[in-house]
Amino acid sequence: MTTVFEVKSSICSNTTTIVAEKIDSDRIAISLETTCQKIKEYSEQIKELSLIEICKGFTENPIYIRADSAHLTPDCLVPCGVVMATWTEVGMMSKNLLRSVEPHSIKFIK
After folding, report:
1. What confidence score (pLDDT) does residue 103 get?
2. Whose C-alpha in 27, 87, 93, 98 is 20 to 30 A from the C-alpha of 6?
3. DSSP string of 18-78?
4. How many domains does the chain have?
């Protein structure tokens, strides 16, 4: 089983494809294909994570901790995409539900 998400940022004009693949009952492999140099550096730090790691809160979650150490800006959507991809791959989010809903978005109103 493999899960693929795409993150497009209109602010920085970068696109990242996130691939999460369950290795065994406890490990998820993550690969990122991106146009962003900072995300390329980030991807080297999150190649494999455990189920326990992806379930941790913001301050203890390696997905977010390593985003900070890779100097990603706080408005970068890729770490959230990594969470969604890993959660979906291990069955914590429904692929059927995700197929039936509109993509997430953040829209400036005023």
Report:
1. 87
2. 27
3. EEEEE-SSSEEEEEEEES-HHHHHHHHH-SEEEHHHHTS-TTT-HHHHHHHHTT--TT-SH
4. 1
